[in-house]
Structure formats: structure tokens, C-alpha cells
Design a protein that fits this description.
Layout (H helix, E strand, L loop, with lengths): L25 H20 L6 H8 L10 H28 L3 H22 L6 H11 L9 H20 L8 H23 L4 H21 L5 H14 L5 H12 L12 H17 L5 H10 L2 H20 L6 H10 L4 H29 L3 H19 L3 H15 L8 H25 L5 H17 L5 H19 L9 H18 L8
């Protein structure tokens, strides 16, 4: 019998395998470049290179929220900007109050843990906590005077306003774009599952999990969009029924293509009466569940419940930073960022992320060495190089994290060079050392402090929901709480260490049954809600 803690394969070559190009990579790529150009262009033209890092902290928030409906994106981007500037502000105050490198590392490590916990709790999505941690950790090692902190944070606020506007701009063109993409992904994943079943290939199991995850992600997107979108919801329910033999793969792909091309939402042919009734019941149950939002208090509880993540990230990041300091690196923020970036959802995934980070960073440092002479021709050349690298980074990141790291590494190094250049050999040596120390410290912290109960809590929540669904007349509020609790437990386990894969299909099936049961409980005497 294998040990769930350590019986895990740690491949290297598969961690470096390239995936197909992502379907929406251009959105964060263009958004970040436009926001950076609008914010940094005037600063460079005015010769205020000392303010570039702070403006970039706000502008880089344009990377977030591109998978969210615009109703949810508006609030999410505002919170990302606020969180980014709060972290940078704390780091700047620390830099102004103390010259002790060990203290600055400790503060950066605490911020790294909080960034990870909050990003996991809010499910903000890529690029997650890494960008927040990089900019805050960088700010902790910038020479600073306390009197200058308000100005520097104010420049970041202006950058954040630009990022918010850029992120929300597509709403003017296609107001249901994110929902369309999410449903299209679910339809395409379901079509791949049906095709795998028809062909009898060995990939049925993987396709089944991918379809379950895509359908669940699409439901979350539609729920966050608020009321409306009935046609998209009906199409997604039909995608779920397609798994059990409804629509064929070609029909599902055709519907997905129409959604992506901006055509009117396709209307699938009507099914039999029992199928139609089941679909209406699930839609009604989902609408009832919408009233069970978490709110700020629920979010605070969720973040507090992730204390283990905070401790784990802090331990790895602090150890990496202090180790780098012991080796003579004066600004060991890159070791902190590398350690914070290693933490993933499972031991195998964290190992893969560490391999990808090391390979990508070392190649990225080599690329920086090649580009350094060009960037030192002047501020404009430096800005153009940073913008070009940022655009390529978003495209490469969808193929594999290591490939994206090849371009994000020189971007990050160059971002700190606006206020003053450093010798290239020193930068190269420091980044190589910081990368290796950070990856090693992060992995050690992951193994030592992993949460062995995360998957168990998911199974407990699943059994609780299934028992409620089977009861003759369960209380609606208990059923609603069980639905929300199961989803939160699954999301929490996805960010913690576990020894076994989560039963995604069973979770989706239980949620569907719960939605239908909730619809029955909330219906009026005439069958209407």
C-alpha cells in the first residue's frame, strides 16, 4: 500500500512539455501593454524614471480578471488594485523605517503568504499571487524616505485607475464575452469526451475529468454574471446532458464556434419532456443558489481558514530570502518571489512548478544578458523592450509556465532598472542563486507543512450534500449551505496539499442533484418559484 504523502511521481520532461496556445492569451497581453504604455510613457517622457516601478504596480493589475463577467470583474479589479497598493505601501514604509535586510525579507514573506491566501480564497485566477508578491517584494528593497511614500503610492493609484479602465473597456463591445467563452470551453470539452468515447481511445478518463471541470467552471462564471443569460444557461445544461448521450460532438462544437464568433446564442433542439423538465429544474435550482453569496464576512472567514497556506508560504519565502542574504545578495526579493511561486495544488504539481521556474528563470537570465546592452541605450529603449517582453510573456505563458518565465524574468529585472542600473554580472549571479534557493526552500516548506485533511473535508462535504438530497424534506437553508460549503471545500482543497485526486465528476453530479432538489423545495404550490 502506497503512502499518500510521498508516493508520487516527480517527472521532469513532462513538466516541460508545451501545451496548445491558450484561447484568450491576447486579452491580458494587450491589456497589460496598453496600461503600462499609458502609465509609464508619460513618466519616461518627463524623465521621472524613479516613479516607474510604482506606476507599474498599478498598471500590472490589468493582467487580472479576464475570465470574469464584467459585473464581477469591476469589483474584482478594484480589489486587486487595492490589494496591490496596500502591499506595496506596507513594503515602502518598511523600506523607509529600516535598513535591516532580514526585516525586509520577513515583511515580504508575510505579504507573500497573505497574497497567496487571498488569491486562492477569491479565485481571482492567473497570474494569481506571483505578480502581487513580486512588486511588493521589489518595493521593500527600493531606497525610500517616509515623506515620499504618499507620492509613490499615489502614482500607483493612477496606474490602478488606468488598469481598471483598460480591463473594463471590452464591455463596450461585447457585454457577455466572458460568459460566452466559458460556455464554449465547456461545450468543446464535452465534445472531446464524446469523441473519445466513440473512438474508444485511452484518453476517456482524462477527457471526463476535463469536461467536468470545464462545465463546473462555466457554471461559476454564469453565476457570477448575475441574473439573466438564460440562453447561455440553457445551452450549458444541454452540454451536461450531452455527456449522457444527448447532443453529439459536432453539434456541441458548432454551438461553441457560434458563441466564440459573437453570433446569436444558438438554441438547441427541444428534448423529450423528462429532459426538458430536468433542465428547467436545474436552472431554477441554480437561480435559488445565487442568493447564497458569501459576502465580505464569508470571504474573511475563508482567508482566515487558509492560515496553513500563509504559514507555509511565509516559511518557504522567508527561508529563501534569509538564505540568499547569507550568501551575500543585498536585495534577495527574487528568492522570496521564487519560493512563493512554487506552491501549487499537489506535490506533483509543485514539483513541476519548481522545475519550470528554475529552467525558465535560468534561460530568462541568459536572455536578459543578451538584451542588456540594448536596454542601456536609453529610457525609451528600456521601455520598448519591457513592453515587447510583456506581450510575448502572456502568449508564452499559456504554452507552459517555464516558457513564460523565460520572458517574464528579464521583464522583472528590467522593471527595477528604471531607477538605476546595476552591473550585469552581479544581477545574473544574484538571480541564479535566488532562483535555486527559492525553489528548494519552497519545495521543502510544501512537503513539511502540507495539509493532509484537505481532501477529507471535500469527501465529508460531499457525503453531507448527498445525505441531504436523499432526505424526504430537507431544510432549504441546510441544502443551500451544503451546496456552498462543498464548493468552498473543493476550492480550498485545490490550493492545499492532498494525497488523492478530488472526485470531480461526483462533485458535479451531487451539485446538479442539489440544484434540482433546491428547486423543488423553493417552488410554490403551483410549481412556480
Amino acid at each position: 500500500m502506497r503512502s499518500p504523502a510521498f508516493a508520487v511521481r516527480l517527472p521532469v520532461l513532462s513538466a516541460l512539455r508545451l501545451a496548445p496556445l491558450g484561447d484568450v492569451w491576447h486579452k491580458p497581453a494587450f491589456s497589460s501593454v496598453v496600461a503600462l504604455l499609458v502609465v509609464l510613457g508619460p513618466l519616461v517622457a518627463a524623465g521621472r524614471l524613479d516613479l516607474v516601478l510604482y506606476g507599474a504596480a498599478g498598471a500590472m493589475c490589468a493582467l487580472y480578471g479576464h475570465g470574469l463577467p464584467y459585473r464581477a470583474r469591476a469589483g474584482a479589479l478594484a480589489w486587486v488594485v487595492a490589494g496591490m497598493l496596500a502591499g506595496v505601501g506596507i513594503a515602502l514604509v518598511t523600506a523607509a523605517l529600516t535598513d535591516a535586510v532580514a526585516v525586509r525579507v520577513a515583511v515580504a514573506a508575510v505579504l507573500a503568504g497573505l497574497h497567496k491566501a487571498v488569491c486562492d480564497a477569491t479565485r481571482i485566477g492567473p497570474p494569481g499571487n506571483v505578480v502581487l508578491t513580486f512588486l511588493a517584494a521589489s518595493a521593500a528593497f527600493v531606497p525610500q524616505r517616509l515623506a515620499d511614500v504618499p507620492l509613490h503610492v499615489g502614482v500607483g493609484v493612477l496606474g490602478g485607475v488606468v488598469a481598471w479602465a483598460v480591463g473594463m473597456a471590452p464591455w463596450l463591445v461585447r457585454r457577455d464575452g466572458p460568459e460566452r467563452v466559458a460556455v464554449a470551453r465547456a461545450l468543446e470539452a464535452t465534445a472531446r469526451l464524446l469523441r473519445a468515447r466513440q473512438d474508444g481511445t485511452d484518453g476517456v478518463r482524462e477527457a471526463r475529468h476535463a469536461a467536468a471541470a470545464a462545465v463546473n467552471a462555466a457554471w461559476q462564471t454564469l453565476l457570477r454574471a448575475g441574473a439573466g443569460r438564460e440562453e447561455l444557461r440553457g445551452l450549458l445544461v444541454r452540454a451536461e446532458s450531452g455527456v449522457s448521450g444527448g447532443a453529439g460532438p459536432e453539434a456541441l462544437r458548432g454551438w461553441a464556434r457560434e458563441l466564440r464568433e459573437g453570433r446569436p446564442v444558438p438554441v438547441p433542439p427541444a428534448g423529450d419532456r423528462s429532459t426538458a423538465a430536468a433542465e428547467r429544474a436545474e436552472l431554477a435550482g441554480i437561480a435559488a443558489e445565487e442568493s447564497a453569496g458569501r459576502g465580505l464576512r464569508g470571504l474573511a472567514r475563508d482567508v482566515a481558514g487558509r492560515w496553513r497556506v500563509v504559514v507555509m508560504v511565509f516559511a518557504g519565502s522567508a527561508a529563501a530570502g534569509w538564505g540568499s542574504m547569507a550568501f551575500g545578495v543585498g536585495r534577495p526579493y527574487w528568492a522570496v518571489v521564487t519560493a512563493a511561486s512554487v506552491f501549487a495544488a499537489s506535490t506533483a504539481m509543485s514539483w513541476s512548478r519548481a522545475v519550470q521556474r528554475v529552467v525558465g528563470n535560468l534561460l530568462g537570465v541568459a536572455l536578459f544578458t543578451v538584451l542588456a546592452p540594448v536596454t542601456r541605450l536609453g529610457a525609451v529603449a528600456l521601455l520598448v523592450t519591457v513592453l515587447a517582453l510583456q506581450f510575448v510573456t502572456e502568449r508564452a505563458m499559456t504554452r507552459n509556465y517555464w516558457l513564460g518565465s523565460v520572458f517574464v524574468t528579464p521583464t522583472a529585472i528590467l522593471m527595477t532598472q528604471f531607477a538605476g542600473t546595476q552591473p550585469v554580472p552581479v544581477l545574473v549571479a544574484d538571480r541564479w542563486l535566488d532562483t535555486c534557493l527559492g525553489a528548494m526552500a519552497g519545495l521543502v516548506a510544501c512537503v513539511v507543512l502540507r495539509d493532509r485533511r484537505a481532501a477529507g473535508r471535500v469527501h465529508d462535504g460531499l457525503e453531507r450534500l448527498e445525505r441531504l438530497v436523499a432526505e424526504p424534506r430537507p431544510a432549504a437553508d441546510r441544502l443551500r449551505a451544503a451546496l456552498v460549503g462543498l464548493r468552498e471545500a473543493a476550492d480550498l482543497a485545490a490550493g492545499e496539499w492532498r494525497g488523492a485526486a478530488l472526485p470531480e465528476e461526483r462533485i458535479v453530479a451531487a451539485e446538479r442533484a442539489g440544484h434540482r432538489r433546491l428547486a423543488e423545495l423553493t417552488a410554490g404550490p403551483d410549481g412556480r418559484r
